[in-house]
Amino acid sequence: MSSTLLEVTRASHEEVERLERLVVKDLQTEPPTNKDRLHQSHRVRNMIVQIIDTTHKLVDIYEDKDGARKDEIAALGGQTATGTNVFSAFYDRLKEIREYHRRHPAARFIIDTGDEYEQLLKEEPQIEFSGEEGSGRYLDLHELFNEYINSKFGEPIEYTAYLDVFSQPQKIPRKAKSTRQYQEYLQKLLEYLVYFFERTEPLQDIDRIFSKVTSEFEEEWTMGKVEGWENNGRENGSAPENHTVIDLDYYSTAEELMVVGPEKLKEALGALGLKTGGTIQQRAERLFLTKNTPLKKLDRKHFTKGSRKPEQNGVVAAPQVGDDVIEMALLEAKIRKLCDLLDETIVRTRENVEKKQALTYEEMEAEREEDDVQAESESDEDDQQIYNPLKLPMGWDGKPIPYWLYKLHGLGQEFKCEICGNHSYWGRRAYERHFKEWRHQHGMRCLGIPNTKNFNEITSIEEAKLLWERIQERQGVNKWRPDLEEEYEDQEGNIYNKKTFTDLKRQGLI
């Protein structure tokens, strides 16, 4: 019975309609926590995938490439090889139905599949996050950070500074990008960002986003306006000095370089304006000279007659832009797009790292336990929204505090601290307490100023610096007083400081 093609078509349409209703019902519920939001998004994503798969099956059925659907419809109409006999087809079909129910008595009862579909709304998909990612709230870029600071294109910086620069690959000098190591770094960074984005934003269509990025990139590349790659990889009409189509960092000798072949060597030499003739070994040795020696320092005999050395005309022959260069530029464009979409997560990650740097191990453990308890309590709360038009702070019972208490403690008064990054503190008590908290301590550490009682009530960076200079002057630190420390000698060999020597000389005593 249920194996007929028309029955499969009907069941598929019913399944699509049920899933669509479940998607609408699930999205009508506002998740109370971030964890619930992730579970909801992944549930909806899974149901959408089921709808797409079922729809593809329906399309195949309606296309009817093998003619099975057409034959079944014809059989229902009584059309046979001998002619059309509606009554004969009807009674044959009735006999088949009776025989089916005689062999399967349980099929007479109606089975409600609604409960099975309703279970999908209670499903909690398993989403893998590392300990540093905090259930999708923060990024974990420590592995990529170590690769960045230990590479030729990177620089030795702290992790917090790396969180500011990893989203701006266009600012890396173009000369440092001509290595396979940089391309592999971009691929790993993009792979992680895509993986993180798919786990935290499953309802976003990453393929459609990248398709738009690619189309915009191709247009900008043709016009030479890709950020960091203007004029198709040339700077001021000249090519980077050590740019070749072959990455020499992966070869330690000229003999190893010979494996790329004579044509590849000839192309690389011609791009740099060097002689392209000779045996494959001579070409490899000539190209290998450019690994550690700038073009302007090479002997003139290595250059072709038609081209002059870089110091003579200031320009070398511009190399042709290869597919690797275009691929790296496209990878950078995709990374910048994902970083724009994950901007709030990046800011949240930076704040979390700065906070951890100002905490001890015991404080970090206590905070982690507090977050776990808070997450459990949030998940157990009812979905009822509390009426709070004045946006008053919550009390210990989870309800807004009385308005008179709000006014008594001055919680409507805002205090801003420039040292804390212009963070706002509401109420005098929170403002006074923040001078001992991690945010203010980190800000003072960045300024190179000890966070002592002398700097309480100071929120301006300029005032803090000025006070620190005065304290250093008062303590005699880093101050040279010439009137007391500069020494002078008279004709008899007596030693005086500057002030005494000037007074005696003015009086004519020496």
Automatic annotation (TrEMBL):
One of its GO terms (molecular function) is zinc ion binding. One of its GO terms (biological process) is mRNA splicing, via spliceosome. InterPro entries: Matrin/U1-C_Znf_C2H2, RNA_Proc_DNA_Dmg_Regulator, SDE2/SF3A3_SAP, SF3A3_dom, SF3a60/Prp9_C, SF3a60_bindingd. Residues 358-384 are annotated as: Disordered. Keywords: Metal-binding, mRNA processing, mRNA splicing, Nucleus, Phosphoprotein, Zinc, Zinc-finger. It is found in: Nucleus. The keyword Nuclease does not apply. Residues 362-384 have a biased composition (Acidic residues). It holds the Pfam family SF3a60_bindingd. Belongs to the SF3A3 family. This is Matrin-type domain-containing protein.
